[in-house]
Amino acid sequence: xxxxxRISVSSLRAHKRRFAGTFLAVLLGVAFLAGTLVMxxxxxxxxxxxxxxxxxxxxxxxxxxxxxxxxxxxQGVRAPVGAGLVAVVGKTPGVAAAAPDIQGAAxxxxxxxxxxxxxxxxxxxxxxxDDPELNAYRLAEGRAPAKSGEVVVNxxxxxxxxxxxxxxxxxxxxxxxxxTIVGLATFGGEDGMAQVTFTGMTRPDAEKYLTAKPGExxxxxxxxxxxxxxRELVDALTPVLPEGVEAITGQELAEENTEMISGQFLTLFxxxxxxxxxxxxxxxxxxxxxxxxxxxxxxxxxxxxxxxLGASRRQVTASTLVEAGVVAVVASAAGLAxxxxxxxxxxxxxxxxxxxxxxxxxxxxxxxxxxxLAVGVVVCLGSALLPAVRAGRTAPLAALRETxxxxxxxxxxxxxxxxxxxxLAVAVTLTGVVSPxxxxxxxxxxxxxxxxxxxxxxAATTAVRVLGAPLDRLRGVTGALAAxxxxxxxxxxxxxxxxxxxxxxxxxLFTVFGASLKATMDQTVSRSFAGxxxxxxxxxxxxxxxxxxxxxxxxADRPEVDTAVGLGRGVAEVDGSGRALTVTDPVGLERTFDxxxxxxxxxxxxxxxxxxxxxxxxxxxxxxxxxxxLAFTDGTTETFTVRAVYGRSELAGEYVxxxxxWAPHRTQDSDTxxxxxxxxxxxxxxxxxAVEKVARAYGNPEVQTRDExxxxxxxxxxxxxxxxxxxxxxxVLIALLGITNTLTLAVHERTRELGLLRAVGQTRxxxxxxxxxxxxxxxxxxxxxxxxxxxxxxxxxxxxxxGASNSAFAFALPPAQLPVVAGVGLAAGLFAGxxxxxxxxxxxxxxxxxxx
Amino acid sequence: MNAASSATTTRGTRxxxxxxxxxxxxxxxxxAVRALDGIDVTFPxxxxxxxxxxxxSGKSTLMHCAAGLDTLTSGAAFIGDTELGTLDDRRLTLLxxxxxGFVFQxxxxxPTLTVAENITLPMDLAGRGRGRGRGGxxxxxxxxxxxxxxxxxxxGLRDRLxxxxxxxxxxxxxxxxxxxxxxxxPDVVFxxxxxxxxxxxxxxxxxxxxxxxVRQMDRTVVMVTHDPVAAAHxxxxxxxxxxxxxxxxxxxxxxxxxxxxxxxxxxxxxxxxGRRDSRSAGGSDGRFGSGFGSEGVMx
Lengths: 852, 299
Prior knowledge:
GO molecular function (chain B): ATP binding
Number of domains of chain A: 4
Pfam family, one (chain B): ABC_tran
Distance between the termini of chain A: 31 Å
CATH architecture of chain B: 3-Layer(aba) Sandwich
InterPro entries (chain B): AAA+_ATPase, ABC_transporter-like_ATP-bd, ABC_transporter-like_CS, ABC_transpr_LolD-like, MacB-like_ATP-bd, P-loop_NTPase
Oligomer: heterodimer
Organism (chain B): Streptomyces tauricus
Number of helices of chain B: 11
CATH superfamily of chain B: P-loop containing nucleotide triphosphate hydrolases
Shape of chain A: globular
Radius of gyration of chain A: 33 Å
Protein name (chain B): ABC transporter ATP-binding protein
């Protein structure tokens, strides 16, 4: 063992506790990272197996070849195939069996009257395929539906809605259908395909409720005869299929399904988690750097002695790095183990909370072992590099001088560089906001973060003075001492606070952005919606089944109601790219929504006319009277005349088309929302009651006022924010560990001083208060910095999004949440200070004053 | 208590601090060390007493126990009439803050506080003196109290009040420590080798300050030292060896103290020193009790 290594190892052994914080920070970051990777891989593999099992009996699938995908959507819309094709396929040589697969959206209502699912994953219904090989679902209990009104539901959905065999409930297709459950099904051996709900009906029922026209199916499932493999089957099928219809193997279908979940949902999910583990590791970098910086400073004399005795710079640097390396490797390995443990724990936990986590062993790939280890080691070594180099630079003479731990961080160079960076950051950011470019704005955000970190030590002195001023007044000499201690090493205080600052900045960024999104929605609704109430189903993502298209008409028939207009959704390709169409009654639309300036007339769209927003019209170079071609999913292309161009698109969408124009191309009919305005003189609550009464007969969707509608639209944002907060808790925890660690080291460093204070009459509780207040001050500095940075970045993000997208974004500072964030930051500081404060208070006076 | 009361002959009968039957054992079993082995000593008020003895004689331990920094294994320690053993940590801390002053060898001052703030520290900790409302730099003139004002002049640091300890020389730092020790008008000031780290001139200044405080301001000082020159500033010297009180000298001079110490080094007992002013306080222990006659020897 060479000298550097021997020195590091003995030093590590002697000062294990000093590195406890570093160890934990690395461990937590690595565990998060490893857990995410392992869980992602495991989920992916499990879904593979599940889809493989579920579709193993299907050898080929016949379906329309083309899909239309609108921007921001993961799954395209595919036209149905004629069910008549089943007979043709069935007669093809090599085919053992063929069955139409009819699919649509349909939401079950649970025993408590509340709809099941709908918050993200799709709520599906289809025909129950009697051939068990072709049916992805297996009958687990009961029997298959035999007559109209009988259904099989997947067991997960039944449990969620507390439904049993024999129960009668409502299925929103979206028209409410009375159904009786006769059987429960499983998917690939599980209670369901993740959280997707499925209702299997008889084929006639499915055709009646789920397709626009009878005799249509989403696809045809085909089973091969003995000795025929999937590829041969597809080759045999392809020649008999009409144009625009394709055959793919069952294998390909399974891969597509898996890709749909793992490629999109899982990738998004893991990316999201990886971003947050990145934030956590970034925060950890600061804590680790700080620990090593302090340890090196405290060891100045020791290192100087080594240098005086003939150790080279390189040897001193190396011994510090080896120390960091040992901590890094041990902590990363522990973190990896913890991460795998977390993944295993989640695998066990998910089923318990009703999320059917597909069974299977944990998948631990080489990547998910190597990456977290490498990241942990690099982060730890990288953070320790500068302090190690500084250790190497220790002058041999320093051994003879009084140790001076205090280094001024507020150098002029730092102030100049920091101010320059800050100016550059603001300039780049503002350019990004004005131009508008999200990339520039993002770059500016990174620069702003860097500027904050560089300026930290410069700002620390002033900030702690200002923040500590009331303390001095309220807590007397104890408070004054706390503030002065926090001021001792501005660089150290700043580095400690920086970790918390980043955590708080990200929290406030999301808080501000979330509040702004809500304000935007509020503004959009109040600006564009001119009606009184809105009928909608509370759902988001792919869930829910929308509203019955008959609802709008039924509501309109009420005497209290002036206009009720339903907004449906269609898709078409315009100029080669998918576009969402708003299918509605344009006259009613104009009466309940503020469309801004309208050129042309919304009144006469007819079957061959469309209305377009001004922005889209500019993009496509369209004017009133021009024609444009829309390609639909059924393969047809029609020419439409632009009859109106309107200004506001927020709620009405970019293209408006009449129901009659859409009818030939429609798939399953549903409205996403029905907007209602009352007649003059109708009392709001009276009108609402009338609408609710009608709605009850249509599956009881929610009737909301404008404000309620805006608020419920924001519900998804709150859910997202909650998730973000939960994930950021780790980063904040690591920042806290950093504060605790710094303070513990500081207490150790000030042993004599504490002893002196105790000797001349500082009580234990005064010592405790002093350390605690120092901690709170450091946390306050980090919190205030984080709020400022996060607020600024939130503003940038909102403004840049505003510039980069069609809809107008409103900027809002949440008045309640930000003080809560600040309070949490301060409480965190108080909490972080508890242990070091306790330790300082426990110091033995005599030992402390006797310490060399 | 005979020996104890006999030490208070020169001035009044007030007792600033005393220990009785003081035993302090560090460690346990085979490794146990008896740092104090049954000591009775009284530190009379208004006197400057020096505690001397070779390294390991227990002089620092005696001071720590008498000052309430450490606790006795058995026996009792008093500040005034308060028995320290009956106090919990909090009350002991408050007693140190309000009734005892300290001057240590090094590291006497809090580096983040100014000279003025260091001087008033015990009072500030008590929330007295400058008052809670004027913490920090604002109250650093330290002149609100005429006593402290006078102290500042005595130690000669008026122009240094706003400086930090790091900006002062070692001697100046010790003078600040002396001012701090007397600032709260404590019953007794304990000084632990206060000149140990100073050159002789600075040391002389500090010792003169301690002496003036006793003689002109009627304060009480107990000083641990191994330096005969320092001890000569005291009104009386008590000698410790192996945890016991072995001798006592009134109005010491450096030479006499040095001779007495040499006697320890020679391994013989103090008997040989004819000029000694010995009133042994070790009466409870037979070994020394016979050695230094319990009846007074003339000065």
